[in-house]
Amino acid sequence: MNDSAVAQQFEQHLAPILSTALRVALRLTTNRDDAEDLVQDASIQAFRAFASFTPGTNFRAWFLKILVNRFLNHKRSDNRAPQSVPLDDITDLFLYEHSRRAGLLRRDDPAALVMQKIDGAAIHAALNALPDEFRAVAVLYFLEELPYEAIAEVLGCPLGTVRSRLHRARKQLQKSLWDLTQEQK
Amino acid sequence: MFLSLLTCKETLARLDDFLDRELSAREVTLVQRHLKICGHCSKIYAFEADFLRELKQKVQHVETSDENLTGLMDRIRAALPADESIASES
């Protein structure tokens, strides 16, 4: 098969999942330019490795693995020091407890009441406050709704690591979102 | 098979996995049994389930227009290496 035929075949695989790839990239990065750069870089890397893709298997999962790892490797090379994860002071059920203390549990649908104050920019800020490796797990889980095992496969880490990162990401998201609702008062 | 009851602490420790459908069938039954008889934990479960649903909806709301995607595909097409030998199964 010549290069042009390979490129055409690659494009046929990429086109249907490009929207997913861009959505994931938009949630991982801080702005649209960085997101598009990430998708483009991942596409070039995927094209170079296209021979290792087994036809008939899940191209979306294969591509997301390249994209997310590209993001993490790039961030690792950018960061001089490892990111700290100051989550020990965040209690489990953070949002529930704070909502209860604020008297919100007496209302119908208290979680929706908290979340209605949260706009797209706040969600973006809360996700971006997560350390990169936690954000990657959170994006694959909340955006793509991948099961833990599929996330572990994409990130190449044990299931227990996914479970623990997701648990901690949830705690930090709850705290960030609660703090944002309090700032709006 | 005998299934003992979980305590509140044991139930809440399994809540994330329960919400994410990541528990074994046996553990799902244990958690469900506890939630049926414990008003405290079932209230927490309802709150966390609603929060999770709302959060997923908000995270999933990302705008990518067709125009955006067409532009991005054009950009990718132009950037794909043409002069490299790409090994592929023919």
Can you give me a brief rundown of this structure?
The complex is a heterodimer of chains A (185) and B (90). Chain A has 185 residues and is mostly helical.
Commentary on this structure:
- The complex is a heterodimer of chains A (185) and B (90).
- With 185 residues, chain A is an all-alpha fold.
- In chain A, 69% of the residues lie in helices and 0% in strands.
- The longest helix of chain A is centred in the last third of the chain and has 25 residues.
- Chain A starts with a helix and ends with a helix.
- The mean pLDDT of chain A is 88.
- Chain B is mainly alpha-helical.
- Chain B is 67% helix and 0% strand.
- Chain B is built from five helices and no strands.
- In chain B, helix 3 packs across helix 4.
- Chain B is elongated, with a radius of gyration of 24 Å.
- The mean pLDDT of chain B is 87.
- Chains A and B meet through helix 1, helix 2, helix 3, helix 5 and helix 6 of A and helix 4 and helix 5 of B.
Radius of gyration of chain B: 24 Å
Radius of gyration of chain A: 19 Å
Q: List the secondary-structure elements of chain B in sequence, H or E.
A: HHHHH
Q: Count interface residues per chain for the largest interface.
A: A-B, 57 and 39 residues
- Structural class given helices, strands, pairing of chain A? mainly alpha
Assembly state: heterodimer
Annotation field: number of helices of chain B: 5
**What shape does the CA trace of chain A take?**
elongated
